[in-house]
Amino acid sequence: MYTKVPVNDEELQHKKIRVTDKELKEILGWETTHIELSRVATPIKVTDIRQQGVSNCFMLAALGSILEKDNDYLNKLLKYNTNDNTVEISLQEDKEVWTYVLDATKIDSLKTNNHTHAAIFLLEKAYALHRILKRDKNDPKKEECDFSLSIQESKGEEIIFSSKLFKIQPQSFEYALEVGDPSIAYRRLGLPADIEIIPRNITLIEFKEMFESPLIILREGKDAFGDDENFFNRSFNQIIDNISLLLKLNALEKETLEESLLNFIAQEKQKRESIIDSIEHHVNVLTQSSPLSLHQNHERVNTLLISLFAGKAPLPEAINIEQIGTRIIESIPQKRGLKLYTTEQNEFFKRISDNLTQNKLVIVGSKEIVGTFQKRSSGVREKNSKGLVSEHAMHVVACYQRGGLKFLLIRNPWGHTVRDYYWKEKRIDNQTVLVLTAHAKTNLNSFSLFHHKEKPRNVVDIKNSTRNLDNKTFDQEFKKGGYFELELTDFTKRFETLTITKDSLATKVENKSTSDFKNFKKEYQEARKTKEQSADRETLGFKINL
Questions:
Q1: What is the pLDDT of residues 287-321, one digit of tens each?
Q2: What SS3 class is residue 84?
Q3: Which pLDDT band holds residue 528 (cuts at 50, 70, 90)?
Q4: What residues contact residue 49 under an 8 Å CB cut-off, 6+ apart?
Q5: Given this model, what pLDDT does residue 461 score?
Q6: Lower CB count within 10 Å: N or C terminus of the chain?
Q7: 264 CB-side CA count, 13 A
């Protein structure tokens, strides 16, 4: 039986709100149905979360990351009352705790999730109602109605009974749950968190595009601005800022570049155009190169830098063209599988690892486009591309290195459909290298409205897979639950948001379920590493050493 864990913070104001199924039907039009409560008192496993028809991945990913550490956590949120068949579910809102007393039933909707534990459905019911009362998704163009509810408020020893009139917009259960912010979901589950944009490295094509406007202004010089010297100065300063950011320059290098370009601007237009032509040529040559060739040979980058700093001669000893060139090259992302990572990628990986080590929780969100140039069609909930889903939240379980590659272990709240890799030959700069090619893998025993069952892979596919572990064991124990590895370069290319809890999870419960999973994860990594070392020896004459 769930027992309510009291909140010790005396500053929190508690609100208890009773909402019956009859009221939900009359005011919101929500129908309810019986829910199987035989397992409601049993601990919830992460794999009980099975998102299917409702787009509330942001909430389910937050819940999944919590259950990964403590599958008793819902004891702090949920209390089941056997005497009147109601459930109390507490959600936190800033300095308030809102406890909803609901009938222990499930919302009967056309689109629904496929969870295997009643408590998750009950939590979704309360969360959807809370979002309506808090006006999370109000549309100013839609009409509102009154929803009068009795509230029991308490702060410390004082208890006040009152009736409050909420102005709400009636919404379907699915709409009320759909789309949200993982940091808000964490906060309402009692764990404050911050959401941020993941730093992204620019591609060589973007590098070229970012040079175009500054070079046009430098080519025209002050003449193009007439007598408006202030406007020119602002534009010139912006050029220095942009190029310095692009080239990863420090303060001294930025100052030297500014002196160089000021000397350049002062020259006659004909000479200035000749130098700009040269710089444009070097930019074009650079951006037509592959990241791998630049990593192995800095000459093209250094030539561009010399042309930019040419107006400042001789260069101060502190300006090292080789060092600047190395920083630029190390900021350009490589093909996945080459074991080469940018400085930003390595820093990001370490940050995720450090936070997980501190027992903090991490959610990542994918971009709108995750592998196709075609945007989502109207009416289609989410776009799927080789096991990844656009604008989808998933929680991070672990991150680790193996064989020179860096991986994040992630769980899809769908509980199926994951990304898998296999090695593929690729010709880059007249070299044959092995890169990772992605494909989708769907749990064949899962039912899904959005995905076709994948055809069985042939023996060659399995043999060449980076997994190199018994296929049946891996699927049943790992991927069947929606867990999969994502290589770091692949991740930073296709994900854009990161949510991390501000504080460590206070309670870490070690039970048979979590310990078995950790043991399997360790055995899996060791077996995979051994198999890959063996595969490396077999293909030594084929794979380039990077």
A1: 888 788 888 778 888 888 888 887 666 777 778 88
A2: coil
A3: low
A4: 60, 63, 64, 67, 115, 120, 413, 415
A5: 37
A6: N
A7: 27
